[in-house]
Amino acid sequence: MVKLKFPRKTLYLNIILCSLALSKNLAYAQDYFNPALLLNTEGSNIADLSNFEEGYQLPGNYRVNVYINDNLAVNKELNFYQTAKSDSVSGGLAPCIDSKWLLSLGVKVYDFPDQETLARQSCIDIKKYVPEASVNYNFNLQRLDMSIPQIWIRSDARGYIPPSEWDEGITAAYLNYNLNGNSSDKSDSVFVSLNSGFNIGGFRFRNFSTYNYMNHHTENIHRSRWNSVQNYVEKSIIPLKSELVIGDSTINNNIFESMGFRGVRLYSSEAMLPISMQGYAPVVRGIANSKSTITIRQNGYIVYQTNVNPGPFEINDLTSMALSGDLDVTVEETMGAIQHFIVPYSGIPMLLREGRLVFDLTAGQFRSGNRDQDNPTFFQGTLSRGLKNGVTVFGGTQIASKYRAGLLGIGKNMGHWGALSFDMTHANSTLPNHEKSQGQSYRLLYSKSLNELGTTIQILGYRYSTKGFYNLNEVAYKSMEQLEPEKKFDEFGNSFYDPSSYYNLSFTKKGRFQVSVNQNIGKYGSLYASANYQSYWNAPKDSKSYQIGYANAFKYFTLSLSWAMQDSPNIFNKKTNTIAASISMPLNAFFGKRDRVNNEVYSNSSVVRNSYGSNSIQTGLNGTLGEDRQFSYNVQQGRNSQTGAFGIAAAHVDTKYGSAGANYSFSDGGKDKSLNYDFSGGLILHSGGITFGQTLGDTNILIDAQGAKNVKVENSTNIYTDSRGYAIVPFAENYRLNRVALEADSMNEQTEILNNVQNLVPMKGAIVRARFDTRIGHRALITLKHLNEYVPYGSTITEESQKVSSIVGKDGQAYLSGLKDEGTLKISWGTSETENCNAKYKFDKDTSDVGITKLQLNCQ
């Protein structure tokens, strides 16, 4: 190549003349860019690039993030059409939007002039009706900005998402499973809970079933039973901001005590409100003297069951079937000893925002899991209304054949002094012995958070009932008392009488006091205390439960101390005092900075003593392994004053297909041995097949990455796509914007995802699909020749079966991804039949793991 040299003055003069000529042409002709300037090779061919001279992008459907006045409103697929405007930002595209969609976003379309004509238009120019408005589209960012004066925007609450953007999900079925089993020399037992259902057209069919199996070897007792706890169908009623339930379910109500029913329920859904417009399962604490099984019942059904090691325990992941109603807790120890106590469970003061109306209507049969109760037909209705000055009024009624009750109440937000509510219930009852009874019950609830002192009074409540007051649950009993509870066997084959089946309606409730306080004392740790006191008419003594605890995390260890006392009029329960102390030390602290160590290892020790003289001491190691800490282990050794030496070895693993664990233990010096095991997970059956995953929530997201296998879901714990590109993201937020993204670093060499982020707004109980556009196949840098010459610069190259396209660069080179093992490429550089050709390609098996393959092809 010959380099030309010019004198500097001559060069400056030519630049000035060219600038003047160019400015003159700009006044009379459109911009023109000569693509030959990109090439420095003589004789190179140039394709017809007239389609790109004006900077246009292709019109069509694009999924974009829509911002209104710089606030993200929604993620939506819109149709874009070509405009006369050409710039590098919008690509000459403008969105096609109608008045209905603008109205859903909160724009006051009904105030626009000539609204009837406007409603018939599929694409409107909002600037025609609001001159101060503007609509700007950024093609590269896929972002649509709409600037609209606030006077034309409806005043919606912060976090408002229009119902038109709510996703009712796909047609699919699901199954949640949990299995907990035990095997010992004396007996074998299995507990299985299945939560299943399917969604179709906005209707959600649900079933919750349990299975209990027990085989007692020494007494030759074999039992197995399936129990269908709940069967119902539900549907979201969007205009009423409510949910409709038909079938067997539970009333979740803070006004009356919760109860199961078979019938129809229509109730206001707080989840449909924006997060800024929305206003409790309690923490269950206790102390286990030895390895124990904890069973929690509500309304006669088992809602939670797990195994714990000796020492203090805390259950903070309880998902109850109801928002109120006492929790019946049974702690069954290794050697047959039983602790039994009640955790009162009721809602906080019933305060609503000004103007908010909440209703709950139920009609059907009373239903419980207790065979000692009848199933009377009843109606229950409640209504709450938020008034000015922080006042809420509420009321309700319960009507059954042998029961009539009415309730009136008021709540007040007292600002700095907390929140308070008071209500009174009057009830007329016909008891199982056919006696008539009537009485009143008065309830006072209070809550307060002293942030400046680090104190939280979670709930403080007091209820006083007169001697003749009964609730519907009590009236449903078939007899006045049950003093001979059912004989049962624990997981180790020891017999016991189930205290939860004991009742005596002559011991009517009189007064109840409950309080839970948490106090943060800064660097000195934290304290918690709770008290539950229930007095009775005619009972020999009252029921009391007190707990106090302290915890602090020091530099190299964590210390906790706790005390618990339980006492009740139950003839099978004795007063018990228990104290416990535990210390945990991270061994990583001795290996330098803790963040340098991937896996945590802890040494822990604990001491437990109760008023029966039983002492227990143990020590051991526990920790986690794996990049996502998906594997955990626990090894313990100790001694109990009554049962002798004991030991525990446990392991648990979490995978993308669920979790599994095993626990081997021995006690009494090795005489009693047992093996516990558990499996849990979920699956979804959909149009693409069956996808397995971790335990599902009420609302879930199904990722469809179209063949992108083993790709990690961003901000998840061990969730990866399967071999077909599917994955399940459980526990999505109802009626909220859920961001789902795939980690680009986890993709293999043959996987590309064009849009790795999706924003979804699922409705309650929905299974929504997050579809990602992928290119699965080979990546190649291809050199193309036609008649022994490189194909023209700017030619389009397409692989039609995979819908892959690109543009040819210098020396006939083009980059393509997502190619099959073999196929045909179509190359075009003009509009005539002679200005295109085809080239066949084929990849060798040895190149399957190569990042980018280089190919040279002749185009025919």
From TrEMBL:
Residues 781-844 form the PapC-like C-terminal domain. Keywords: Cell outer membrane, Membrane, Signal, Transmembrane, Transmembrane beta strand, Transport. One of its GO terms (cellular component) is cell outer membrane. Its main location: membrane. It is found in: Cell outer membrane. It comes from the Bacteria. SUPFAM superfamilies: FimD N-terminal domain-like (SSF141729). One of its GO terms (molecular function) is fimbrial usher porin activity. Belongs to the fimbrial export usher family. This is Outer membrane usher protein.
